Amino acid sequence: MAKSLVLVNSVYHLMTAVQLGHLAPPGETADLVVTDATPGLQDLVPRLRETGLFTRVIPAQAAELSARYPMNNPEAVAQCFSQGAALLRWAFGEGDPGEYAQVLFPNFDWLVRLLACRYSCPFYWMEDGFSSYVIDFARPDRAAVNRHPLGALLGEKTAAALLYEPSLAMRGDGLVNLPLPKLSRQDGELLRLLNFIFDYHPPREMPPFLFLEQSFRAEKIQGNDLELMRACQRMVGPENFRVKPHPRNVDHLPQALGLSRKVDLAVPWELFLLNEQHRPRVVTVCSNGALTGRLCLGQPDDTVMLYKLYTGKVLWKEDKRLSRYLEAFRRRFGGKNYYVPETVYQLQAILKYLGGNHGS
Q: 298: which DSSP letter?
């Protein structure tokens, strides 16, 4: 009986893992590893176990490994690999994994790199949003860990990347890109599973326009995102506008500045999109959440991307491959309720067209 090990570090990974477990052919089983990389993710372990979807659901410690052993520090990398077996025992505690036919993983982090030293089976890289389309994480000059003989093992054992839109991949790493089945709102059993796992309840209210915030302030990136929020609020009207805060921005600054009332949405954005017939028009600088709705769901909801109006020093301005990806994404979905204004005047015209006629 073929058995897989599936690792998840975020709610996005978990939704993909649940979908794969739900669609697995008879006889194929999997153990699920839920790490502590995202605060609160391991709170879902009891409900995941209750579904019976996975043979075992194993909590694992991964966050401390990343903090303790910087991957671009050759001495720290060597130390981590020298203690690999002991660190794996510590990370898994009493839930030590068994033997597997394949390992599915979403990030090139320490936990999966140490597992690559342990297992000889093929590894499959599972999508982590748009970075999976543009970044070769195993490239030797990317980090010291990739130049270590044991650090190179994960790249060598990775058989393919599993992506929701393989045709958009432009990493240049030579990996085969295989399609992931998109999440479908027509799959009632999948929706029931996800709603149970995340204890989904519809939000009490949702505005016509929702701005998806990013973690710029948490990352100390200075830019004009607050000014863009204010401009959008003015264009559509305060009563029609809210800001969904990013979990890493603990200051709740948009609320403090009067740009938004609290948004009652504690579940994954993709799960909200799957459940609700009436969804807000999304505005964002370049939030992964605004892209994943189209990547993993294939839903053409109204989306306005403001990255061409943003002034901060961010990756998509520095990395030509990422810029090409965003342009390819725009060409792939442009004209299907997907808008990328290049001026404030274009933004105002788009928001007016989408029903935000509030004046200037």
A: -
